[in-house]
Amino acid sequence: ILCEGKTESQIINIYNQLAKKNDNILLTRADKNIFESLYKTDSRLRYNELGRVILLESSDAIKTGKVLIISAGTADIPVAEEAAESAFIAGANVERIYDVGVAGIHRLLAYYDNIQAANCIVVVAGMEGALPSVVGGLAPCSVIAVPTSVGYGAQFEGLSALLTMLNSCSSNITVVNINNGFGAGFNAALINNK
């Protein structure tokens, strides 16, 4: 459920309808007040405040493989968390590596073995968006690039990062839209689960 743009009563109504037939439900772009309202009626819910995500998870859900979520900077973490929770609810084991952008490439290289062991990688970056190309050059798997609208200078609300990612010479990169952690995480789980 995309919560952004919906009223609280609309979200609650949609959730209640889904909860009748589903053991796993993901609500994205959810503010804490939405979580608090839903939690009153369903205490099984979990809230990731940083990623603005609410989850109802089946207790017997099986997680497989490995999706690696990488963020360039700390400011990219909210979108990375949305991706991580989306991949998790879709059945993937998730590992997070945050704040390893190209401004300090040694931080990323310390995780070379983690990159090699992943079934799919989501790379979240703002500013100039260079990190997915670097990870793509190191990774033996699909890399899903997520441009974010963070940064200063001529980043144009994420357009600069988007264009860099679309023009990457690493052939294993696919790009989703600006700030689309949900789309990246869900597709990473689909790739991982194959």
Describe the structure.
The protein is α/β, with parallel strands linked by helices. Helix content is 39%, strand content 20%. It is built from eight helices and eight strands; from the N terminus they run αβαβββαβααβαβαβα. The protein has helices at residues 8-19, 32-41, 77-89, 105-109, 112-117, 131-138, 159-166, 181-193, and strands at 25-27, 46-48, 53-56, 64-71, 92-97, 120-125, 142-147, 173-175. The strands form two sheets. The protein has a five-stranded parallel beta sheet with strand order 5-4-6-7-8, with helices on both faces. α3 (77-89) packs parallel to α8 (181-193). The protein is globular. The relative contact order is 0.15. The model has no long low-confidence stretch (mean pLDDT 94).
Radius of gyration: 17 Å
Helix share of residues? Answer: 25-40%
Specify the overall morphology.
Answer: globular
**Percent range for β-strand residues:** 15-25%
Quickly give the structural class: alpha/beta
| Element pattern in H and E | HEHEEEHEHHEHEHEH
Spatial strand sequence of the major β-sheet = 5-4-6-7-8
What is the number of beta strands? 8
Q: pLDDT under 50 segments (min length 5)? A: none
Q: What is the terminal-to-terminal distance? A: 25 Å
- How many individual helices? 8
Mean pLDDT: 94
Largest beta sheet, briefly? 5 strands, parallel
What descriptors fit this protein?
194 residues; 8 helices; three-stranded antiparallel β-sheet; alpha/beta; five-stranded parallel β-sheet; 39% helix
